[in-house]
UniProtKB/TrEMBL annotation:
Primary residence: cytoplasm
Compartmental location: Cytoplasm
Record has Cytoplasm as a keyword: yes
Organism, scientific name: Shewanella psychropiezotolerans
Keyword vocabulary terms for this entry: Cytoplasm, DNA-binding, Iron, Metal-binding, Repressor, Transcription, Transcription regulation, Zinc
Lineage: Bacteria, Pseudomonadati, Pseudomonadota, Gammaproteobacteria, Alteromonadales
Oligomeric form and interacting partners: Homodimer.
Protein name listed in UniProt: Ferric uptake regulation protein
Domain of life where this protein originates: Bacteria
Amino acid sequence: MTDGNQALKKAGLKVTLPRVKILELMQGPENQHISAEDLYKRLLALGEEIGLATVYRVLNQFDDAGIVTRHHFESGKAVFELATKHHHDHLVCLSCNKVIEFSDDLIETRQDEIAMKHNIKLTNHSLYLYGVCTNDECEHNDA
C-alpha cells in the first residue's frame, strides 16, 4: 500500500482513482500552492480524465480531512498545499503570485508574546506577507 493510500485510509476516505491521482500530483514540490483549476489542467495534460467538479470535491474532502491546507491569498483564488506538521509562513508576490514559504523563530516567539500580553492562548495562526518581487526572476517586474 502506498503512502497516499495510507493517508486516505487514515483520513477515513475511500481509496479511489481520482483521490489517488490528485494526491500523487500534489506531492510534487511544483504543485504546492496550486488552485483547483491549475491542478485540473495538470491532470488533463497527464491524460487523466478527472472532471473539474471532481477536483473541487476531492480538494474539499482533503481539506476537511486535514490532508491539504487551503489558503486564500490576495489573488482571491483558493490555493492548496499538502498539510505538513512543520509550521511555516508565506511571502506572496502581488505581481506574479509566486509564493515563498519561510520559517522564523523570532516571528513565532513574538507572536506568542503578543498573544500572552492580550490573554489569548494561540491555537492556530497564519502569516501572509505581500509585496512585489525586486529581482529579475519576476516576469512582471518593472524595475
